[in-house]
Amino acid sequence: MAFALRIWNVGFPNKILFDETYYAKEAWGILHSGYERKWTDGKESNPQIAQGDLSGFLEDPAYVVHPPLGKQLIAVGESMFGMNGFGWRFASVIFGTLLVFFTIRLARRLSRSTLVGAIAGILLTFDGLAFVMSRLALLDIFQATFTVAAVSAIVADRDWFRHKLADHLRKHNLNDLGGSFGPVMLWRPWRILAGLLLGAAVAVKWNSLFVIAVFGLTVVAWDLGARRLAGAGSKSWWSILADGVPAFVQLVVLAVPVYMASWLGWITTSGGYYRDWGQNNPEEPLVRFFGEAWGSLIYYHQKMYGFHTGNQMMVEAEHPYEAHPAGWLFMIRPIGIEAVNDIQPGEEGCDAVGTTCLQVISGLGTPTLWWAAAIAIGAAVVWWLIGRDWRFSVPLLAIASTWIPWFRYADRPLFFFYAIMIIPFSSIILAMALGKILGPADHPKRRKRAMIVGIIIALIIATFAFFYPVYTAETMSRPAWLMRMWLGNLWI
C-alpha cells in the first residue's frame, strides 16, 4: 500500500522541485564522474533539465556540504530511468516504502503485537510529510530509513543478549548468575548491523551522530541492567567496560568504514572539489600525516563543518518557511515545496468559478496524526519514567536524538521537513498508545475500545485524503486550498 501510494505519478511535476536543485543534479555528477559537478547558471538550468536538455552539465566540481551516500542512491534511480522526475525520485520511493517496513518491524518488536506494528505502519503510510518526502529527491528520507532500521537492530540486539544470558543459565542449570559477571559476548550480530546502518545514516547527513551517541549509551545501560537482573550483583558494573568497549567498536568504529566508503568516488578520482588541495599543499600537517588524498578529504570536512556551524551567512540568512524546532511536533510552520499560482479557469483542469486555481506541494504532515502523536508523546514520557515501561524509552530517545540537537542551531534557518526523522518514532508511540487503549483480547470492553481505535485511525486516513491535493500538486481552486490551511498564515 505504501509503495503504491508513493510511486503513483511520482514523476509529476516533471521539473526540479525545491532542494532537488542540489541533490538530483549532484547525483547526476556522481553517476558520471564519481563526484558532484556544477551545472550552468545554477538553478537557471532547471527548466532545461526538465525538457531533457543536459547541455548545462559542466566539468567543474561542485562544492557540497553533505556526504555522498544519499546522492549516490538518487543516482541509482537516474541510472535506471534517466535524468527526469521519475528517475531522480525513484530511490526516494523505495526508501520511503522501506521506512514504513522498518517502522512496522520496530513497533512489532517493542510491543510484541502484530496489530500494533500494523497500526504504526498504517499511520506512517498516511502521514503527509512522510508521503511527500518519499516523492522528492532529498536526502532526509534515506537518513530516516537507515536510522529507523538501525534502532530496530539495536532493539533486536537487546532481545538477543537477554536470550543468550538465559541460555547460559539453562546450560549450567543455574537460577541466576549468583554474583558472577556472566559470559562476555563479543559477537553481537544485530549490534554490528546497527553500526553499519548508523554509518550509512551519517554518510547521508552528519546529524545522525547524535543518534549514535544516545543509543551508544543506551545499549550499555541495557546490558548492565540485563546482567543485574540475571543476578550479577555488584559485578554488573563491569559491564561498562566489558560490554561498553565492544559496543563502542560495534556502533562507532564499524560505522567509520561505511562512512568512508561513501567517499570512494571522490577519493579514487581527481576532479572533486578540494581533491587537489593535498597536491597543492604538500607541507601541510594533514597531508604529511594522512597523505594527499585523505588529507584533502579531512580538509574538505573541516570546510563543511565550518559551513554548518560557523558560517555567518547561514546565521544571518532568512527564509519565509523557516520553522523553529519548538514547533515541529505541533506542525506550526510546515514547508512550501512548490506552487503554481493564478491558473485561469479552463486551464490545467481548473473548474473554478469567479476565482483562479493553483497547484501546490506542501511539506505538511497529516494534522490529526501529528497532533494525536504529540499527545501520545507526553503520555509516553509518563509511561516510561513513572510506569517504568522501558518500551516507550526507545522511540522517545530516538525522537530526542533527532530533534533536540536542532535547538542549538535555532538562530539560523531550520525547516519542518527535518522532522521526517521524528514521525516514524512518534507514529510508533501513537500506535503503542492505541494498543493500550485497545487492551488485551479478553478485555470486557474490547469491542468498544476497538471502535475508538478504529475511529482514530479512520480519522487520520480521512485527513490524509482531504489534504492529498496539496501533497501532489493537484489543480484546485484557491478557496479549496485555503480551506486546508487550518492554521491560516502559519501554513501559507
TrEMBL record:
One of its GO terms (molecular function) is dolichyl-phosphate-mannose-protein mannosyltransferase activity. Residues 80-153 form the ArnT-like N-terminal domain. Belongs to the glycosyltransferase 39 family. Protein O-mannosyltransferase that catalyzes the transfer of a single mannose residue from a polyprenol phospho-mannosyl lipidic donor to the hydroxyl group of selected serine and threonine residues in acceptor proteins. Its main location: membrane. It comes from Tessaracoccus flavescens. It is found in: Cell membrane; Endomembrane system. It is a multi-pass membrane protein. One of its GO terms (cellular component) is endomembrane system. The chain crosses the membrane at residues 86-107, 114-132, 138-156, 237-260, 368-385, 415-438, 450-471. This is Polyprenol-phosphate-mannose--protein mannosyltransferase. Its EC number is 2.4.1.-. InterPro entries: ArnT-like_N, PMT-like, PMT_4TMC. The keyword Ribonucleoprotein does not apply. Pathway: Protein modification; protein glycosylation. The lineage of its organism: Bacteria, Bacillati, Actinomycetota, Actinomycetes, Propionibacteriales. Residues 294-488 form the Protein O-mannosyl-transferase C-terminal four TM domain. Keywords: Cell membrane, Glycosyltransferase, Membrane, Transferase, Transmembrane, Transmembrane helix.
